[in-house]
Amino acid sequence: MIPANFDFHCHSSVSDGLLPPAEVARRAAGNGVDLWALTDHDDLGGLDIAQATAREAGIRFVPGVEISIEWREMPIHIVGLGFDWHHPALVDGLTELRSGRLERARRMGEALDAIGIPGVFAGAMGYVTNPNLISRAHFARYLVSIGIARDTSGVFQHYLTPGKPGYVDHRWASLADAIGWITAAGGVAVVAHPGRYKMSGGDMRKFLDEFKDLGGQAIEVTSGSHSPDHVLHFARLARHYAFHASRGSDFHGPEESYVDLGRLPPLPQDLKPVWRLLDLS
Ligand code: AMP
Ligand code: MN
Ligand code: MN
Ligand code: MN
Question: Using CA positions, which residue lies closest to atom 20 of ligand 1?
Fold first, then answer.
């Protein structure tokens, strides 16, 4: 059966989303999504309940994850889809990857303290729902709550992005690691929201060359993070590289996300949808 509305990128409270995985599953179904993946950052802990709830709600489910990597010192996200979520290479790789987040968060707290905003580490921890997965989004929520900016985008813009006082460098996984873990576990590697990376056109092509050489097969073309121009641009790149195309809202929560689950345009018609690479039985 051909899906009418697939959404392969969103978050639950297992990472930095606001709703528990079961609620995300029910919301996806309620919004008319008929093929759905949960893609929490660096953590597989929501997949069992997401799968069970998707089944109850009558929608098809694909296991997913969004892996934090660095490429030439740039932070990039790689989505994995349709893997065995008990595979040791993937499970162990992600456990190791998560382990650096707490120390990074402490350093972010110190950096903000140094510019006269004290107590932010403890404050951000108050927003964390999975102790192994503290993200900049939790810092942003706390900083909004104390009136540092009106919304989380304002916090990111002024405090939490490279060059801003609360940003600290961090060693994430490599591109080869992320693609290796995903493919070892039988999954498909997808470049998440390529329009968000501040890369030159030349660097983007080098990145996509490497991604393809390492076994990457798809890129997000329609994304909650993409403008209509991004969609046209990355559709062209998908054709050029013969990549399959993915579509995902990157939903984090009702009040926070601009795009709700499943509420985004369809993929350009000539592209090969990434679900064709998955075993949907
Ligand atoms: P981290 O994995 O800790 O580096 O945090 C990355 C997360 O922060 C992303 O997945 C988003 O949830 C959030 N984020 C990053 N940039 C922005 C932004 N400009 N505005 C709002 N949220 C953002
Ligand atoms: Mn996030
Ligand atoms: Mn991302
Ligand atoms: Mn995401």
Answer: 153
Q: Is 139 in the pocket of ligand 1 (CB under 6 A)?
A: no
CB 251 near ligand 1, within 6 Å: no
HSE-CB of 27 using CA atoms within 13 angstroms = 23
25-38 confidence digits (pLDDT tens): 999 999 999 999 99
For residue 188, give Cα distances in angstroms to 12, 62, 95, 162, 175.
Answer: 21, 11, 20, 29, 14
State the closest ligand 1 atom to the C-alpha of 153, by its place in the atom list counted from 1: 20
pLDDT digits (tens, 9 = 90+) for 179-201: 999 999 999 999 999 999 999 99
Dist CA 280 CA 99 (whole Å): 33
From the CA of 250, how far away is ligand 2's center (Å)?
8
Residues with Cβ < 8 Å from 228, sequence gap 6 or more? none
203, pLDDT greater than 90: yes
Determine phi and psi for 246, rounding to 5 degrees. -115, 165
